[in-house]
Amino acid sequence: MTQTRRIFTFVLRLLALAATVSATIVMVNSHDSTRVLNLTFKAKFSDSPTFTYFVIVEAIVSGYNLIILLLSSKGSLWRIVIILDVVAALLLTSSMSAALAIAQVGKKGNTHAGWLPICGQVSKFCNHVSGALVAGILAAIFYYVLNLFILYNVLNPLFVAKPN
Amino acid sequence: MTQTRRIFTFVLRLLALAATVSATIVMVNSHDSTRVLNLTFKAKFSDSPTFTYFVIVEAIVSGYNLIILLLSSKGSLWRIVIILDVVAALLLTSSMSAALAIAQVGKKGNTHAGWLPICGQVSKFCNHVSGALVAGILAAIFYYVLNLFILYNVLNPLFVAKPN
């Protein structure tokens, strides 16, 4: 049973690592340019502070996840890892939500604010961002399942007494 | 000691409730209009799907928090409440991050995408949104402290054995 649990969390971490690394790489490589009325219109992820934040968070969580995968889980650090896993989920949620909000404006625009959609002009850029966002959402989902599974096990009545 | 802990979590929940209720009310009441070249330019929170999402999340977390405050913490539901508190923190993080990303574009614009800042035209609206965002950030911080405190206590070696 313990062995099964360990394999399950290991696989979830591997999947989350694959998703965050993909999200980072795909977002970093998202660029496109188009010519409108003799003006070259370029788009890349670093044009938006939100997409830059997304890349930083996905890279940080990738690094953290890799360290946890390489370190033995037998150490005494497992309590701090539970807290750090929740922090990682919060960071992934934050970066994914912010990037989704900006991507939505990029795709649909906002007529009230006079912000025009840009995906018609730089569709290659938009496709890359969409791909990175899907990977980011998957990474967050893997972390939600991981956290739920770990917390469920920690809070199992067999292992814990009510703290207050 | 147990009594002190209970008072601390109660106060944190009260503060989080005050913050989420304030965020909801201030965001719902954010509207402004201006006239540019004989055109009336109106701004309200529901013009942006992100701000609407912010209001929905802050209202849901307010309701959840109120129920937990009214319910006795002596019941057998405390394990599910620990998980729900993490979910509430994730929801608050998501809505706050998305709203911050849009507010940043509203304030600074994005020259690369051709999105102009709107805060010069509808400053009253922007001030309201800023106020709601500050309340939303505070609500998230109160929930982070609450979760950290509860998880720290649950993971205390006195109460828990290593689950795997």
Automatic annotation (TrEMBL), chains A, B:
Segment forming the signal sequence: 1-23
Keywords: Cell membrane, Membrane, Signal, Transmembrane, Transmembrane helix
Keyword Chaperone (UniProt): no
InterPro entries: CASP/CASPL, CASP_dom, CASPL
Entry's localization field: Cell membrane
Casparian strip membrane protein domain ranges (all copies): 5-142
A cellular-component GO term for this protein: plasma membrane
Coarse class of the protein's main subcellular location: membrane
Transmembrane segments: 51-71, 78-103, 132-155
Membrane topology type: Multi-pass membrane protein
Pfam families with a match to the protein in the record: CASP_dom (PF04535)
Subunit structure: Homodimer and heterodimers.
NCBIfam families tied to this protein: A_tha_TIGR01569
Family to which this protein belongs: Belongs to the Casparian strip membrane proteins (CASP) family.
PANTHER family (UniProt xref): CASP-LIKE PROTEIN 1U1 (PTHR36488)
Protein name, as recorded: CASP-like protein
Origin species: Malus domestica
